[in-house]
């Protein structure tokens, strides 16, 4: 089977399998390992997007399915979502940040410095001056 004959569904399924196989160890109650695992997995997904292996929409779908089908990823994502305010702004890959902000939104968690938009940041500067 050549790469030209692979459908969107098949490439998404292949990417899901690759990500699931590459889920790093999250340890037992280890905040640091869980966040590191989330970052590593989303970096792999971001690379898959950059190399045109999958689309961003497919990657978001895969991460959503992994939240339901992969307990280690769910634990890693939840820990990252709950600890996002302690994570630096440029640590998460763009896909990882987009997904974790959606997770936080679904959990009704307050916004963090990651979710501030540029215009809001400019308004805050005016208030501080």
Q: Any overview of this molecule?
A:
This protein has 129 residues and is an all-alpha fold. It has one domain (3-128). It is built from 6 helices and no strands. It has helices at 8-21, 31-50, 56-69, 71-82, 94-106, 118-128. The longest helix has 20 residues, at 31-50. Residues 117-129 have low confidence and may be disordered.
**What is the average per-residue confidence, as pLDDT, rounded to a whole number?**
83
**Proportion in helices:** 55-70%
- Counted by DSSP, the helix tally is 6
**Biggest β-sheet description:** none
Q: How much beta, percentage-wise?
A: under 5%
* Rg calculated over all Cα atoms: 16 Å
Uncertain segments are 117-129
The number of distinct β-strands equals 0
Element-by-element helix/strand order: HHHHHH
Classify the secondary structure makeup into a structural class.
Answer: mainly alpha
Q: Outline, from the CA principal axes? A: globular
**Cα distance spanning the termini:** 63 Å
Our count of domains comes out at 1
How do the strands and helices of this protein lay out in sequence?
Blueprint: H1 8-21, H2 31-50, H3 56-69, H4 71-82, H5 94-106, H6 118-128
Helix pairs in contact: 1-3, 2-4, 3-4, 4-5
Short description:
This protein has helices spanning 8-21, 31-50, 56-69, 71-82, 94-106, 118-128.
Notable features of this structure?
129 residues; mainly alpha; 6 helices; 65% helix; globular; disordered C terminus
